[in-house]
Amino acid sequence: MTRRPARPAPGPAIRVRPARELRRRRRPRAHSCWDHLIAAPLWPLHGANLGTLLRTCDAVGACMAVPRFSWVPEALERGNTLRRPACVHWTNDPLGWLARQRDTGARVVGVELADEAVRLADLPAARGRTVAVLGHERHGIPDEALGLLDAAVEIPMVGNGSSLNVAVAGSLVLYKLAGLL
Predict the structure, then answer these.
(1) Domain of 83?
(2) Which residues form the tRNA/rRNA methyltransferase SpoU type domain (predicted)?
């Protein structure tokens, strides 16, 4: 009969931090949208993506700017699993809203496949008020909005698809802009 080698002693147990400890380690004050990130899915197609992106906004301390489509409030309410009010900016005029953001000094970064786009890994963290513009799931950012961008960021993909859905793309970019990746 062959003897098995003794198993090494298990390493230190993984300690899961309790919710109280996590809350103590997070930002000590509520965020202010005057010096923060704003996710701007201004041409949304699916409500489920807005709800998911709203949760990411909370995680990184960002606000969200959305168009006043009739179905958007319900989508945000359904997606807000935190059951606290979220910082949401409403607009009837996405192009005018973006232009006003630039006029007030915000950096406007679009998630788009463009020749001048920076790869996500090379995107620096936001140093001031930054708007992350997310386009339509099928058509991207409209041509008339591209001129309002200060920069474009591309999320590299090796699969067959040409883009990710708005919630996933927005989440990746927000984490990177927040300096959390």
Answers:
(1) 34-177
(2) 48-175
